[in-house]
Amino acid sequence: MISIASQQIRASYAFVERNAYLVKRYWSWEIVWLAYSIANSLSVSYIGLGMEQIGGQEVDGRFLVLYLVVGTLVWRYLSLIFYWITDVISLERWEGTIEYTLMAPIRRLTHMMGQTIFAVIYSMIFTGVILGVTVVLFNIDLSNANLLGATVVLLSGSLSFVGIGIVGSILPLLFPERGSQMTHVIIASLLLVSGVYYPVEVLPMFLQHMAVVSPATYVLRGVRAALLDGAGMASLWPEIWPALIIGVATIPVGLWCFKQAERYAKRTGKLHRSG
Length: 275
Description:
275 residues; mainly alpha
């Protein structure tokens, strides 16, 4: 039993290492993507100061900046996890290893676990760099923030986005031509209803009902409470447990659906197709 577990752990680490080598190989793209992400995040954050100038003294521009900064960084982190999971098929097709990987005698859980571990580590580092630049430019004071609480909330949301990402990864598997682009619909829908740049309460009622099932809604509220108000773990728990439940529900469902889609793709010859 210990030997089998050790083999599965090494197999999962192999996917972590493979993805790390991919990042190293395409380091120039990573610099471009990081520069774009920093510019995009700063552009959204500067809206807070812009609203203060447009709206006059009645608008607290500094609070708006913090509100938008937190929303932007949290969303960047969660969406990176989502895309690394959904790109598991696209990466294999790009490298020409999809048939070897999906035919290898390893459990799909082991495969996805390695992809997930790398996605979380990569997203943490990537978002941390953006946070550092943002803190310097906006002179943000995090001395009263509950950084540990914010991290716990982020990790609880990570599970949910892993589950959603596994479900989304079915699209590139079933639709080789445009499956990767189709995953944007999922992330765009979550962006709309989760309150990334505005409170959920400003949405129409039917969209507010959709926000209840989005794990990003709870993660954003929890991280904002931890960083802006210094909320403790007891206050953050109502935002943590819904995200955990969604993760516990979506991961096994996603793995089961992926397994069925994988069988169909193998049977119909969709694995190696790229167009």
